[in-house]
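tool=predict chain=A
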Amino acid sequence: MFKQAVLIAALSAAIAGPQSAGAAQDYPSRPVTMVVPFAAGGPTDIVARSLAEAMRKPLGQTVVVENLGGAGGTLGTGRVARAAGDGYTLLLMHIGFSTAPALYRKLQYDPIKDFEPVGLAVDVPMTMIARHDFPASSFGEFLSYVRAHKKTLSMANAGIGSASHLCGLLFLSAIDTDVQTIPYKGTAPAMNDMLGKQVDFMCDQTTNTSGQIKADKVKAYAVTAMTRIASLPQLPTMDEAGLKGFEVGIWHGLWAPKGTPKPVIDKLVNAMQAALNDPAFKQRMSDLGAQVEPSGRATPQALDAHVKSEIQKWGPLIRKAGIYAD
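tool=predict ok
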C-alpha cells in the first residue's frame, strides 16, 4: 500500500510539473489583476494605474486595477495572500506592507512568508501641507505655530498605518509635540476636509498633494526628501528648513502570492522593469514628484531585503508609540 501511494504521488508530480511549466510558458493568457488595498483616487491608486498601463504592452495583456480598501490596507493585502499563485493576482502596496506586523495584533498574513516579491517600483516623497488660511508663512513659522498651539490644532491622516499617519507620527516625534490626530477612511476624505478647512494640517504623498498645491488650494511648507523635487521646486526640504535629518520616502512595491512559479515571476520582473523605463510612465511620475526606481532595485531580491530592513526600522518606533489597530 505504501509503495502504491508513493508511485501515485510520483506520477501526479510528473504530470503536474509539465502542466505547471506549460502554464508559466503561456503566461499571461488573460488579463492580470493588480489589487490596490486602498480606495480609488488615492496616491497608491494613482501609482498603480500608471504602472498597470505601462505594463500592458510588455506583458501583452491588460492589467486591471482592483481597489479593495479597508483596515489600513490589510484587507486587500490579505486577499492577495490567499489568492492562487498563478500570476493573475498581484499586489501593489507601499511602506504599510512593512509596518503592518507592528500595527496589527491579529494580522491575517505574513508579509515575508505569504508573498513572492517582484520588485520596488517608485518612491514618493511627502509634503507638509495645511489649510489655505493657516497663519504660518514658512516652515519655520509653521513649526513654531504648531508647538505654541498644539492643544487646539488637528492633524489629519488617511487611517492607522497609512503613509500620512506614519509621516505624521515621525513629525510629531521629531518636534516632541502632540496634537489631536484625526484618522480618515482614506486620503480623499482627509483632503476634502482639509480643503473645507475642517482640519489644520497633514503630511501626505506628492502624488496626492501636488495638484492641490499647484492650484493654490492648500498651503504647502516643505517636502520630506533630502533634496528638492523638480515638480515643486519652490518647496524647501524639511532638513534645509530647520528639521535636520528628517526624511520620509513612501516606497511602493509589487508582489505575487506565495507559490507563484519562478518563470512567471521572471516575466513580471521583466514587464515591470520595462514599464519603469517607459518615457510616458517616467514623465507621469516626475510630474507627481515620484522617483522611479532603477532596474537594480526593481528585483525580487531588492524588495525582499528592503521589506525586512523596513520591518526592523518601523517596528520599534510603532511599539514605542503604543499604536495598535485591531
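The chain has a mean pLDDT of 90. Residues 31-123+249-321 form a domain with the D-Maltodextrin-Binding Protein; domain 2 fold (CATH 3.40.190.150).
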